[in-house]
Amino acid sequence: MIQYDNQHQVFKLDTPNTSYVFGLTDRSYPGQIYYGKRIGDTDLMYLLRENERPEPPSVLRREKAGYFDFYPMEYPCAGIGDGRESCINIRTLDGQEGLELNYVSHQIFEGKKTLEGLPATWTDNADSCSTLEITLGDAVTGLRVILSYTAFTDVDAITRSVRVENAGERSLYLTKALSACLHVEQENLEVITLPGSWSRERILQRQKLGYGSLVTESIRGISSHQDHPFMALVSENCTQTTGDVYAMNFVYSGNFIAKASRDQFDQVRMVMGIHPDHFCWKLEPGDSFQAPEVVLVYSDEGLGKMTRSFHSLYRKHLIRGYWKDRQRPVLINNWEATYFNFDTEKLLAIAREAAAGGIEMLVVDDGWFGCRSNDDSSLGDWQVNEKKLPGGFTYLAQEVNKLGMKLGIWVEPEMVSEDSELYRAHPDWALQLAGREPGQCRAQYVLDLSRPEIADYVYEMIRTVLSSANIEYVKWDMNRLLTDVGNLTLPADRQGEIMHRYMLAVYGLQDRLTKDFPQLLLENCSSGGGRFDPGMLYYSPQIWCSDDTDAIERLAIQEGTQLLYPLSSIGAHVSICPNHGTGRTTPFETRGVVALSGTFGYELDITKLSDEEKSQIPGQVARYKKYSALIREGNYYRIASWRENHRYDCFMVVSEDQSEALLTYVQVLAQTNRKSLRLRLAGLDPDAFYEIEGKRYQGAVLMYAGLLIPRMNGDFQTCLLHIVKVG
Predict the structure, then answer these.
(1) Phi, psi of 293 (to 5 degrees)
(2) What residues contact residue 691 under an 8 Å CB cut-off, 6+ apart?
(3) What is the C-alpha to C-alpha distance for residues 549 and 562, in angstroms, rounded to an integer?
(4) Does residue 170 carry a pLDDT above 90?
(5) How high is the pLDDT of residue 60?
(6) CA distance 120 to 110
């Protein structure tokens, strides 16, 4: 619900348990007042300190700049006195910067608009959310800024986005357009981010926020392995169940910045949006620019409640399409089984063994196209290599379908190899700076998809392949950062638009793909988890979490990912041992349990498994199917973190009606002279009784007194418990 109190000049946005409030000083400047537990009153303007010096510009004109330097501006501008991080800046044709945004008008309506060309949360029921659009204007340049807020009635989340319009008579350059700003007045705050690297994505990091700034950012052209478009301010000693959390997550897959700063007045400002480096958007008179969406979540019950809010929002209002609420097929991918060394008979041998174990889909990874026998060539030549696969995918799909299985493929449409027919014909199609040889990464260049003719050509190749056979799954990969970001067709004063135009083109391609093939299961990937973000989740219901398939390494990677994203979105597979990345040997059962808390599949040569390992596959597949709906739809509770305690990992998924739960426990390191471990569970009905392995427990007992996990011999052991309400 959203309301405007005209008497007090206050806007209040309510979700089921939170309120977001801002007001208008001098009927002109939107100032942030409150974000936290839900409140009823709107008489809150006193919190903006209008009676303290320096007073508002209408009262004390001589201190206007000083006033802006402490005022909690809802959407702060650069160049007019606020020395903190701004959200927007422009450059005029005269080379001058700075603007002053004043309130013009607003409207409140039920439902939510789409963001043209961009991923964003959505609703098919206008009663599930309300939207506020507030228009601000700059009198000198004619610039208009529309701040959009959506408050959901079924989830404790608020989304924000910004549209910038040039309503003036002269061209100007938008040099910064962040999407959201949040002010928090609370001492001893800490900042949580999710940094990492290739094969170590999204490892939770927590730092004390002193005076100055903490930043997480990417200027790699992708949201990246190294950083993640998420930041949370948390109260000191915040845990999974206690403390305040103020969180932001960016619905975008390209360059971003998230920054938290503590100023001289102990106010904290947190901002998020497209990174201003490598960004400059020309706005002719009448043009507009739409910034991506930011999701805001507040929790007064620690990180766990924040997590469940993000999960619920993304399940209900971000993931779309045919597979949104469906059980995903159990797949086997041939990459770690064969790498480039395969043919039709090898693939069918894998498929036959897989089908016998109940596996439902064969995915043909890299190496099926052009002259691709290693990673030095053929990207861009998206035609099936019939010397390797006689009859192409038409024949392979028919044979795989006869086994009762589906067929899927891997593609990397954004790249081109120097050794390819496409590059030899169109070397100018790669991103490049005039006069410089573009730099290779993984022996490949990036196609300049910001040029529509290139995007159309690439899409038509992929569409032709998918139309040639019964292909029901695509893994869309993107394996390098963007460099040499120049465009040979755009004018000089639009070169700063390329990074964002590129991202819009990727979104456009995936939008076309999902519309042309509405039942296709699309899984995004970027060298593993380099583009695991809400923007990609809008187009694909699942994303490959990490190229690190080691079950023990995956515990920390999946913990960081599960902090924000539903388990059903996390691509996770059982791989071979010794693991190809770490060399570690982990029990086959443990690998299956860890992969169960994701989409579940296999990444190995099933024909080379031992009889004992093969015999476990039907049971693992049946277990996945048994718990699939619970894992996909249930509420997630983190009980313990191996990353923190260095001994064991534990979490639960509890059904919405609290009728059942699944507890996953992994003993990473065994220790001598230990008793059984007492764990306090979460999310159950305290008054109900539950059965665990034939024994009855009251919900309150399990949550407050605890459950004993027997001591297990050996490292890397697991315990999976199904908890069912009885009586």
Answers:
(1) -95, 145
(2) 697, 723, 724, 726
(3) 16
(4) yes
(5) 65
(6) 17
The residues that bridge with 297 in the sheet, in sequence order, are 247
- How far apart CA 420 and CA 378 sit, in angstroms, is 5
pLDDT the model gives residue 51:
84
Whole-number Å distance between alpha carbons of 388 and 373: 10
Q: What amino acid positions are annotated as catalytic residues?
A: 477, 547
Say what angle helices 498-516 and 452-467 make with each other, to 10 degrees. 30
- Distance (Å, whole) CA 317 – CA 158: 12
Q: Give CA–CA dist 338/289, Å, rounded.
A: 46
pLDDT at 224: 97
The fraction of the chain above a pLDDT of 90, given in percent, is 94
pLDDT reading at 489 higher than 70: yes
The CA dihedral of 30, 36, 38, 43, to the nearest 10 degrees, is -40
Residue in the block written with tokens 């507030």: 134
Q: For residue 586, what is the enclosing H or E element?
A: none
Name 486's Cβ contacts closer than 8 Å, sequence gap at least 6: 431, 432, 433, 434, 495, 498
Concatenated DSSP letters of 180-243: EEEEE--SS-EEEE----TTS----EEEE--SEEEEEEE-SSSS-SS--SEEEEE-TT--SSSB
β-pair partners for 690: 697, 725
Mean pLDDT of the chain: 96
Task: Give residue-wise pLDDT tens across range 59-88.
Answer: 667 778 778 888 999 999 998 888 899 999
Could you give the CA distance from residue 456 to residue 476 in angstroms, rounded to a whole number? 17
Residues 449 and 500: beta-carbon distance below 8 Å: no
Q: Are the CB atoms for 271 and 246 separated by under 8 Å? A: no
In this structure, the chain runs to a length of: 727
Contact 80, 100 (CB under 8 A): yes
- 3-state SS of 615-667 is HHHHHHHHHHHHHHHHHHHCEEEEEECHHHHCCEEEEEEECCCCCEEEEEEEE
Q: Are 102 and 29 in contact (CB under 8 A)?
A: yes
Q: How far is CA 34 from each of CA 47, 130, 185, 297, rounded to the nearest angstrom? A: 9, 19, 9, 13
Report how far apart the first and last C-alpha atoms of the chain are (Å, whole number): 38
Question: Given the DSSP bridges, would you call strands 677-679 and 660-667 parallel, antiparallel or unpaired?
Answer: unpaired
Burial class (CB within 10 angstroms; exposed 0-12, middle 13-18, buried 19+) of 578:
exposed
**Looking up tokens 């069918």, which residue turns up?**
348
